[in-house]
Write a structure and sequence with these properties.
There is one protein chain. This protein has 181 residues and is of the alpha/beta class. It has a single domain, classed as Vaccinia Virus protein VP39 (Rossmann fold). The protein has a seven-stranded mixed beta sheet with strand order 3-2-1-4-5-7-6, with helices on both faces. A hairpin with a 2-residue loop joins strand 6 and strand 7. The protein is globular, with a radius of gyration of 15 Å. The N and C termini lie far apart (41 Å).
Length: 181
């Protein structure tokens, strides 16, 4: 995987083969960050990266100037790898080793962007639980956005606060926002 833009543009990051991950493809990641770039200033936002895996998405935010990034993953190897990479590049990434659903049930905080990339083989009710918990616990800032990555075989359009989705090959990003009054 590589960092697409920002301070660490073109840097390759090689994750250990034994991590239970499926990193977001460069094409999908570039398209996602074009959408985010049109809505936010990277140096002004706070980010929560759920099911962080290799940290691929968090490195991209850090490279573009985001200084408030939290990664949550339950795999010790993933957390260790993210910590090592963040230290190597001096990136402001905080990690939390936790089951994402348990974390969301107890989380307090306010994030401008929450990105979730759960395993594609999750049942639909697990995918739907992510926006349910994020909005029930008011984890998004007023103009915040929840982005859930999933396969084209999963539909999240029926979820509360669903706004729109974008597809890139087999990857789909569903966007959720607080409805303005």
């Amino acid at each position: 995987m590589r960092i697409i833009s920002g301070q660490y543009k073109s840097r390759k990051i090689i994750a250990p083969k034994n991590l239970p991950v499926r990193p977001t493809t460069d094409m999908a990641k570039e398209s996602l960050f074009n959408i985010i770039n049109n809505n936010y200033y990277f140096d002004d936002i706070s980010v929560l990266d759920l099911f962080a895996g290799t940290g691929n998405i968090s490195y991209e935010f850090a490279s573009r100037g985001t200084e408030n990034i939290t990664c949550v993953d339950q795999d010790f190897g993933c957390i260790k790898f993210i910590n090592q990479t963040a230290e190597k590049f001096e990136m402001p990434i905080n990690t939390i080793k936790s089951d994402v659903f348990k974390y969301l049930e107890k989380a307090t905080g306010n994030y401008d962007i929450i990105f979730a990339d759960p395993p594609y083989n999750f049942p639909d009710d697990q995918f739907l639980k992510i926006p349910e918990l994020v909005f029930a616990n008011n984890l998004l800032s007023e103009n915040g956005m929840l982005i859930v990555e999933h396969s084209k075989h999963t539909s999240l359009e029926q979820a509360t606060h669903f706004s729109y989705q974008k597809s890139y090959g087999g990857n789909v990003f569903s966007f959720f926002e607080i409805e303005s009054e």
